[in-house]
Each structure stands twice: as structure tokens, then as C-alpha cells.
Specification:
This protein is of the alpha+beta class. The chain is 20% helix and 27% strand. Strands 1, 2, 3, 4, 5 and 6 form a 6-stranded mixed beta sheet that branches. A hairpin with a 4-residue loop joins strand 4 and strand 5. The N and C termini lie close together (9 Å).
């Protein structure tokens, strides 16, 4: 868990330089592990994960297949065809949200 607040791209480069990559949540186990790491008061309400919308589909930046998904089931489905919010974040409630890549959030690296 990195407590610095960075844009998605800054977070991606930081993780590549200092660790391995932004974390992919390719399974329920990885999802639950990440969720346990962000449930602290001083962590931003959502954190960057290695999910990005490129060429009309979501993908993990480390090339893991996007099989497991945890998008919010409440009303807003703009992750299906995002115009501006093209980076993935995990909320403290445990759902994925598409978010503006320029927002500054904490993030999780491998």
C-alpha cells in the first residue's frame, strides 16, 4: 500500500520503478487481500489498481486476463463505455469504479 497520492499514470510508473506493477485483482482472493490493505482511516476512499480502459475494453496492465470482476451493481454502469473515467479504482466498500486518471489517489503495488 502506497500512501502517496498520485495520478493513475504516476502510480503506474512508481510501482514499476519501486516494486513490480500496480496490483491486478484477477481473483476474489487478490480482491480480498487488497481490500484488507486499504481499510485504514488515513487511506483515500478509493485507491488505484492496475485496471485501464484502452481500445474499447478494460485490461490489467500486467496482462492478467480480466475474468473476475467487481464492478458496482448499483445503477451507474458508465464503466461499460467510459468517455473520461478510464482508470480503475477499488473503493473501501470493495467495488471497482472507473475514475478520472488525473485524480490523485493512494494506490497498491505488487
Amino acid at each position: 500500500m502506497v500512501e502517496a497520492e498520485k495520478s493513475w499514470e504516476e502510480a503506474m510508473w512508481y510501482c514499476r520503478r519501486e516494486h513490480t506493477a500496480l496490483m491486478s485483482l484477477a481473483s476474489e482472493t487478490e480482491h480480498l487481500l487488497a481490500l484488507s490493505r486499504i481499510k485504514r482511516d488515513h487511506i483515500t476512499e478509493r485507491v488505484w489498481i492496475g485496471l485501464r480502459y484502452l481500445e474499447d475494453h478494460w485490461l490489467w496492465v500486467n496482462n492478467d486476463p480480466l475474468v473476475y470482476q467487481a464492478w458496482s451493481q448499483r445503477g451507474n454502469q458508465d464503466h461499460q463505455c467510459p468517455i473520461y473515467k478510464r482508470c480503475g479504482a477499488l473503493t473501501k466498500e470493495g467495488v471497482w469504479e472507473n475514475w478520472d486518471c488525473q485524480d490523485r489517489l493512494n494506490f497498491i503495488c505488487y
